[in-house]
Design brief:
CATH class of the largest domain: Alpha Beta
Number of strands: 12
Strand order of the largest sheet: 2-1-3-12-4
Radius of gyration: 24 Å
Shape: elongated
Order of helices and strands: HHEHHEHEHEEEHEEEEHEHE
Structural class: alpha/beta
Largest sheet: 5 strands, mixed
Number of domains: 2
Number of helices: 9
């Protein structure tokens, strides 16, 4: 049931995005009163049947923005198909996976594949992606310093402190010519992998959810897309640098819907 329900989530997202484009037009000249009466009768019977059926519940954990907001668009479509979508909102990147592994959630929607892979490896979990939904670009946002050109020697920059997101932030800083990362490190880079730092920048590793709040205390901050939105920041208007649409990040970091992998071994005895 869970797999079917998750497919319905994805379908309902598409329906919400497409609006009523799939609705067929009806020629009133070809429709007689008998057809109308039959349709009305069928609708009434269908509604009574749906009313008598208890909706099957799907519990999905999500970041507040934009993930929970996107899922909200799926509720009405799912309800019409017999499913009740219950959205649990989270403010961090750990608890949604912990809750999913514990069986408190049917699915979650907040992370990209590299983060999911790393989380599985570090925690010994077996969570899997069922679909990529959307991509959120990282941005560099101004704090005490309003532009990259104005950065002074020893300026302070905040980046996410979690696994692949830190590497992603450092790569964005490298793309602006601020630092150089050791060759071959790639998506496993941390601050200790900075090979060149001509401005002697002080890079602070901070929990992703706290980055927007740190802006008043640092010169710049590299902020995850969802937390930037949650803080009222617009990546196209407020960020002074953004991941390129053709970057590795754009190709790799689509946000996914994840579920817990379940392996069922059925043994049949032969008499």
């Amino acid at each position: 049931m869970k797999k079917i329900a998750l497919i319905l989530v994805l379908l309902s997202l598409l329906v919400a995005a497409l609006g009523g484009c799939g609705t067929k037009d009806v020629d009133p000249e070809k429709q007689n009163s008998s057809d109308n009466n039959d349709k009305q009768s069928n609708d009434e019977e269908g509604n009574k049947e749906n009313d008598n059926k208890e909706l099957k519940k799907i519990v999905v954990g999500a970041s507040i923005t934009p993930h929970a907001e996107i899922l909200e668009t799926a509720k009405s479509v799912l309800a019409a198909k017999g499913f009740e979508l219950n959205i649990i909102e989270y403010n961090d990147y750990v608890q949604p996976n912990v809750a999913l592994d514990a069986g408190d959630l049917d699915a979650n929607y907040f992370q990209h594949q590299p983060y999911l892979d790393q989380f599985n490896e570090e925690r010994g979990m077996d969570l899997v992606s069922v679909a990529i939904i959307h991509y959120e670009p990282f941005g560099i946002y101004p704090g005490k310093t309003k532009s990259i050109e104005e950065l002074k020697d020893g300026a302070e920059i905040a980046v996410p402190n979690d696994g692949t997101n830190e590497a992603r932030a450092l790569l964005l800083l490298e793309a602006q010519g601020l630092i150089t990362i050791k060759e071959g490190v790639g998506m496993e880079a941390t601050v200790i992998d900075i090979a060149e730092n001509p401005k002697n920048l002080k890079i602070h590793e901070i929990e992703a959810a706290q980055l927007a709040r740190s802006l008043q205390d640092v010169d710049l901050a590299v902020i995850n897309g969802n937390f930037a939105i949650q803080a009222g920041l617009n990546v196209s208007k407020d960020a002074i640098a953004v991941e390129d649409k053709d970057s590795v990040a754009a190709e790799t970091y689509g946000n996914v819907i994840a579920i817990k992998k379940v392996t069922k071994i059925e043994k049949k005895s032969k008499l």
